[in-house]
UniProtKB/TrEMBL annotation:
InterPro entries: SEC_C_motif, YgfB-like, YgfB-like_sf. This is UPF0149 family protein. It holds the Pfam family SEC-C. SUPFAM superfamilies: Sec-C motif (SSF103642), YgfB-like (SSF101327). It comes from Paraburkholderia polaris.
C-alpha cells in the first residue's frame, strides 16, 4: 500500500515506538529547517491545539510545525514521504486527544533531559515542550482570553510561560535561573495541562452540541403543520409540538 494514502481509520491508531522515533529523526534531519520544532516542541504545540476551546484545522497549525516562514517547509523527497510524515503528525495529535479524553491526569508530556557541565545528575527539562505549547497558544490566543482573564488560569499558565516564553522580565528570569528551578517548574506542567483541559471542556462540549444540533436541523425533513407530530402523540403537529404554548 502506498504511504501517500491517508486512511481516516488509520489516523486513530497511536504511534508505535518505532514510528515515534522515525518522526523524531525526521524533525531534526537535514530536510527540515533549524526553525522546525523538535519532537518535544511538537508534543507541546499539538497539546495546545488539543486542549483549547476551539477546533483548529491542520491546515492552520501545520505550517507552524516547520517554522515561521514558508521557506522553512521541509524539502520532502516525494509526495509519499510528505503524506507519510503528515500522517504520523496527525496520529500523534489524535493520540494526545485520546489520552486527555481518557484521563487528563494521566497525560505525560514528552519532556527532555539536561545536564549541567560535567554533572552526572540529569534534570527533567520542559523548555522545548513549553516553547512549543506557547507557540501553539499564540496561534489562537484570542480564543483563550477567558483563561487569561481568570486568576486561576494565570496560575496554571505560569510554569508554561516561564519555561516557554522568550520575553521574560528580570524578575521572571530569576525564577528559572537554576536547573533545580527549571525542573520544579517542569514538574508542574502536567497538572496545569489537566486543569486547562478541564477549564475548556464545558465550552468544547457546548460547541459540539451546537454543531450537532445544526447538522440535525439540516438533515431532518421539515415537519408540515398537518403532519403527525414527531413526538409520537398521534396528534397533528400544529395541535401538539407546533403549538406555541405546548411543551414536551
Amino acid at each position: 500500500m502506498s504511504k501517500s494514502k491517508l486512511n481516516p481509520a488509520d489516523l486513530a491508531t497511536p504511534l508505535s515506538e518505532k514510528e515515534f522515533d522515525e518522526l523524531d529523526e525526521f524533525l531534526i534531519s537535514e530536510v527540515t529547517s533549524e526553525e522546525t520544532l523538535t519532537i518535544e516542541g511538537l508534543d507541546g504545540y499539538l497539546t495546545a491545539m488539543a486542549i483549547g476551546p476551539t477546533t483548529v484545522p491542520p491546515s492552520y497549525w501545520l505550517p507552524g510545525v516547520w517554522g515561521p516562514s514558508e521557506d522553512d517547509a521541509p524539502a520532502f523527497e516525494t509526495m509519499d514521504q510528505a503524506q507519510h510524515i503528515l500522517g504520523l503528525i496527525l496520529r500523534n495529535m489524535n493520540g494526545i486527544i485520546t489520552t486527555l479524553e481518557d484521563d487528563p491526569d494521566e497525560f505525560e508530556p514528552v519532556f527532555g533531559f539536561s545536564r549541567v557541565d560535567d554533572s552526572e545528575r540529569e534534570y527533567i527539562d520542559g523548555e522545548a515542550w513549553a516553547f512549543g505549547f506557547m507557540q501553539g497558544l499564540a496561534l489562537v490566543r484570542a480564543d483563550w482570553q477567558a483563561l487569561f482573564d481568570s486568576e486561576q488560569g494565570q496560575a496554571w499558565l505560569s510554569p508554561l510561560h516561564l519555561m516557554g516564553s522568550e520575553d521574560l522580565t528580570p524578575e521572571e528570569l530569576a525564577l528559572i535561573d537554576t536547573p533545580e528551578q527549571r525542573e520544579a517548574l517542569t514538574k508542574q506542567i502536567p497538572a496545569s495541562i489537566a486543569a486547562i483541559y478541564r477549564f475548556w471542556l464545558p465550552h468544547r462540549q457546548a460547541v459540539h452540541e451546537r454543531k450537532l444540533a445544526s447538522a440535525m436541523q439540516r438533515t431532518e425533513p421539515k415537519v408540515g403543520r398537518n403532519d403527525p407530530c414527531p413526538c409520537g402523540s398521534g396528534k397533528k403537529f400544529k395541535k401538539c409540538c407546533g403549538a406555541a404554548d405546548t411543551l414536551h
